[in-house]
Amino acid sequence: MYRETQIIESAKTTSPNGGPDAVDDGALVINVGPQHPATHGVLHLVITLQGETIQKIEPHLGYIHRSIEKMCESLSYRQFIYVTSRMDYLSAHINNHGCALCVEKGLQLEVPPRAQVIRVLMDELTRIASHELWWGAMAMDLGAFTPFFYAFRERETINDIMEETCGARLTMNYMVPGGVMYDIHPNFQKRVKDFIQLFTNKIDEYDDLVTGNIIFQNRTQGVGVLTAADAISYGCTGPVARGSGVACDIRKLYPYEVYNKVAFDEIIETAGDSYARYLVRIKELKQSVRIVEQLIDNIPEGDFQAKTKAVLKLPKGEFYSRVETARGEFGVYIVSEGGTTPYRIKFRSPGFSNLSALDHISRGCKIGDLMAIMGTLDLVIPDIDR
Amino acid sequence: MAFLKQYISDVYRAVSSLLKGMKTTGSYFVRPKEIITQQYPDNRASMTIPERFRGEVVMTHDENNEHACTGCTACELACPNATIKIVTKFDTTPEGKKKKALDTFVYHLELCTMCNLCVEACPTSAIKMAQSFEHSVYDRSQLLKKLNKPGSKLRAGVE
Predict the structure, then answer these.
(1) Residue A269 · residue A280 · CB < 8 Å
(2) Which fold has domain B50-154?
(3) Nearest-CA residue of chain B relative to A166?
(4) Which member of A175, A264, B28, B122 has the greatest number of CB atoms within 10 A?
(5) CA nearest A160 in B: which residue?
(6) Considering CB atoms only, which of A82, A210, A214 is closest to B115?
(7) Residue spans of chain A under pLDDT 70
(8) pTM listed for this prediction
(9) Can you give the residue range of the structural domain that contains A162?
């Protein structure tokens, strides 16, 4: 028997809680994924339908599990950072940043001011690129194909900037313990300013194309409502929780690097539906632009990397650091026994917790609404599965 | 009556929002210069790849076919994926002493993730990242490379 068939059979027969979870007669159990264009990866959802109404969603993971946490245990503190680019590949810089911060915390290393500003600039550019891709892909899920090309057009500019300074377009491995790998490229400031100028005009274009569109609004408003209490109890973070009115921006609550010196707003919407989550991300684009504008002319002179020993050894103990990725809170927990490799590493990825709310908020929705809900949760499957 | 009013205003709002979006898209018909499609691979000659782009690891050789690799295996230790394997041999110096030297620099391009840690670790800047990116071949064994050229030797003065 195929694995999918087994899962469907078990979904029909078992009712773990008895009452509300029990599948009625005449319910239809279908698979969405693991190969489905709207899941953007190998996410497998087993959906129980009553007619067109969703009764229950069971996500099945494991299709892209690479045991990254276990892999990191055999890599040194310099080496393990590059692996984390492969988790949430759309915010690779920010993942690397979180790991570098945790190692620096263990080493009690002071990062030079120039490196701090470069890191924040790269983080915000990554956030813009990530939200752009989300915007294009989400509109595509809802049937609008043109936004995808518009989003990729601007994202390409960021990728070119990254390529010039970091040497790679997606998995940069630019953050190293103690700073950044190399200094910024001489063209970097000019190109970022050009991009900002181009991009501020384009955000209005996005609003005309999708945000104000009546079809889009009708498909997202009031769909997949997540209350603030549920967002907290499911551990949702990032734009998903902020769309429900939970203030959870790590950049504001636990500022790292130079985030306490730049002015930006934490975007909070209170409706909790798909449209609110959409608005949070669109407005965050403008805030990221604001941060980049403040910092791009004020990169302090100095070293881009602190002096570190050739072999890094963390003292015995436990270290935790967190950063705000484009999807929410990303935490790195390192247990060190005093050696050159971590004894245990745990990553707290935002996608996993956000996915756990999917079943709760989709119950009672129609199957067509599922795409709007999944789109605004902004799931990156390698981040969920690791 | 209120229902009718609501209905008409909804229709007006819907049509105007759709027209607004179509105006945005349609305006690109008259602004063809803003279209950014690249005709790859026809534009290979005019393409510019940034000098920091990480395509593959290469070893730099000068005009005398000399390289700067001492065979210290710092890159091998820095590599997270066991991409690099360094085979060393013992050379006899003019003074009659035996000295460790590079025999073969084995590089597995199929395992490499272009993280640049080996280039950072190299104390003599013997290796660097090249900008080539079209790596597809018909057989996996073709991706196994020997980076030091045949007959090459260590540049004098590099320790």
Answers:
(1) yes
(2) Alpha-Beta Plaits (3.30.70)
(3) B52
(4) A175
(5) B50
(6) A82
(7) 1-25
(8) 0.86
(9) 68-385
